[in-house]
Amino acid sequence: MISIKNLHASIGEKEILRGINLEVKAGEVHAIMGPNGSGKSTLSSVLAGRADYDVTEGEVTFNGKNLLEMSTEDRAREGLFLAFQYPVEIPGVSNINFLRTALNEIRAYHKQEDLSAKDFLAMVKEKQKLVELDAKLTNRSVNEGFSGGEKKRNEIFQMAMLNPKLAILDETDSGLDIDALRIVANGVNKLKSKDNATILITHYQRLLDYIVPDFVHILYKGRIVKSGGKELALEMEAKGYDEIKREFESVES
Amino acid sequence: MIAEKSIITSNLLEQLQKHAGKVGFMPDDEIVDAIRLLEDKGIPNNKHEDYKYCNIESVFRKEFKIVEQSLNEITNEDIAPLKIDEAINVVVVNGNYNNDLSEKMIIKRFNILSFNDLFPAEKSRLASLAKSKTDALIALNSAFTANGFFLEIEKDAIVPMPIHIIYVNSGTQNCVVNSRNFIHVRANAEVTIVESFYNIGTGKVFSNFVSEKLVDENAKLTCYTFQNEGELSYSVNTNQVNVNRYANYCNTTFTLSGEMVRNNHNVELAAQNCEAHLNGLFITNGTQLVDNHTLIDHQMPNCESNELYKGIAKDKSTGVFNGKIFVRKDAQKTNAYQSSKNILLSNDATINTKPQLEIYADDVKCSHGTSTGKVDEEALFYLKARGIGDESARKLLLQAFAQELIDKIEIESLKERVLKLFEKAL
Questions:
Q1: CATH classification of A2-252 is 3.30.470.20, yes or no?
Q2: pLDDT tens digits for range A166-193
Q3: Which residues of B touch A (CB under 8 A)?
Q4: Contact B381 A141 (CB under 8 A)
Q5: How far apart are the CA of A227 and the nearest CA of chain B, in angstroms?
Q6: Is B385 in Cβ contact with A49 (below 8 Å)?
Q7: Cβ of A109 and B387 within 8 Å?
Q8: Do B98 and B241 sit in the same domain of this protein?
Q9: Contact A15/A57 with Cβ under 8 angstroms?
């Protein structure tokens, strides 16, 4: 699905990713954990194509294509989806219009015809249920005046509508109460299949109780310093990141 | 410079007088005064504080050195596409009210008369709101105004459908058109008026429009101004509005084309407990200039005013918003809000925006805000991250920016017309 090799990225003079290696196959769920400032969000931003970062070294192959050469929109059209940590409010653009435009541009990229209004609305109705999103919200402006939980549910709703091959969920659990977390996780689980993959970026183990990962990676200072199964997440939760910090701080110096 | 100024003004006056002949539609003494004022003040240029970014004198010097007044006849076929189906369409051709092209009045307590058909007593009311001495362009209009119209909505009349006034200019050579009207909405009456401006000729037109609008006690006047005059047009549009006790005046102006468009929107809140809402949206490209000047004069206590102006400037175009709010000594408990938001789409485009608040009362709430920037990069990235291409994403965001104003239109076909032209201009 995606193969990341020796990825280095900086913002201005500051190098944030310092050689990431990661291989994600179809059907897998990977969790990337790490303390604040370890580069988790940078990784998701670089993969989605945010212009603020410079990739200085390394390569990323997404379904056999060079991801780093693609524009942000082409990455999405190829099936990469980023659920934002902070979904953007866009007053004046209705959720529905936004999704229809996105869906049809993705379809056009794959030389498919526009979805009919009827099929589109049927799809909206079906996918809304998945994240228990209030029908009223889909007619409102994108994320405008949504609560934190509604914004996150809207991200998963969009994911359900666009049906990506690889979904990167950037701190989707942050700011969610336990009920909202369960709804979001439930949505993500239902969307899982043998043909798609998920990368969960999170600070806490909590989300992983609901979305069980096949692999857990610990990111620290721009590198993956430890990988393991789901038990690694529990270990981190119990011990905190301090041990990792001590262990790799000394390697640093 | 003084010499040049007088040359341009006297050249203009001479040519207009030659074409106008002896016909005068304003009261005689008004015409005499107006011409004297014009000779005295001259057509304003950029040294005039109010016309800093909008040099009218230079337009006359460069584009209208010779005024031909070769005006075209207009037919029903010309007007048909400009009409609004759900409204009563009134037609003004080259400044003259045209009864034949206008739809017949099926509504009671609604009177429209050309200036020519007014009784002297009524005629004397013209120019009671828009005074020549306040602005040279008003003086120019008063001196040479065409056969405009007087529209009256009688007391207590609720007009059930919008009145659409189509101002259509057409000439084959340089024309200067001075259109004028007086709209009187009497006590407790309610009406919606759309004023659309077109130039369908092949010649350049300088359109100098003046509208006096008197809104009596407890009346409601909702106006839309639709400006789509095209690249051969230069226009100054003055609205002089007087709002009385418990009355409500609302105007939203859409400027979609026109090489130079200057709007002077002056509102007097002349009695207690009345309100005014002024809104505007423009999109400019090429070398266009759109200059919105508003003046809200809070004269009495407990009045409210709201202003929201938005602009998008492309290419080498210029947008101006100058919003003056006066709160006079007696106007305690005034609420006045003003906001101007702009987006620049090119490094060569310019936006000048200036709030001007003069407050002489001490118990008032006034606020103003202005912003000028580029398209929101975060929102752009969000849209692109969902597969929407750069161009469509930008269009979506610009439409969203404008939507707030377009949504103010309560006449469906006008809304569609504005939306279509706005999208085309993007």
A1: no
A2: 999 999 988 888 888 999 999 999 999 9
A3: 378-379, 381-390, 392-393, 396-397, 399-404
A4: no
A5: 28
A6: yes
A7: yes
A8: yes
A9: no
